[in-house]
Amino acid sequence: MIKKLLIFLVLNFIALAIGGLFTGSGVSSNWYQELNKAPWTPPGWVFGVAWTFIMVAFSFFMAFWWEIAEHKKGVAILFGIQWILNVSWNPIFFYAQQVILGLLVITSLTVLVSYLFFGNWKKLRIKIVFILPYLIWLVIATSLNAYIIFNN
Question: Considering the entire predicted model, what is its pTM?
Fold first, then answer.
């Protein structure tokens, strides 16, 4: 279990690091600063804190799920798709400034994480709470992305 947890922590923090490469200059860019953002947009520092917590919790979820999964290849594929969607949103949104494509990506990620949550509800029982912060944050982030599309 510890080995799997460490593997998922490394993979998830690599995803955060890659995303951070594209977020850093994007948030301070004139393009992003001039956008009409949702009133519920949190301050910038909240994103880093939230994503750190989310990825730690998600790593626990993945380690627990991996332990009970009958089809580990399927788990690895779903994790890989999640990883790619997660990493790709930042360059799509901040670097390419493609907010509609960004919404498609983050909506896909939200649907996938919802599937992971609801699909493992009975198997993981109380341990399912480890993916809940990810799901809640994605719902918020999806709404922020959508607000930008409809109000700019």
Answer: 0.93
> pLDDT tens track of the chain, all 152 residues?
899 999 999 999 999 999 888 776 777 789 999 999 999 999 988 988 999 999 999 999 999 999 999 999 999 999 999 999 999 999 999 989 999 999 999 999 999 999 999 999 999 999 999 999 999 999 999 999 999 999 99
- The class that CATH gives domain 2-150 is mainly alpha
Residue the block writes with tokens 């992305």: 145
Every domain of the chain and the residues it spans: 2-150
Structure tokens at 89: 């949103």
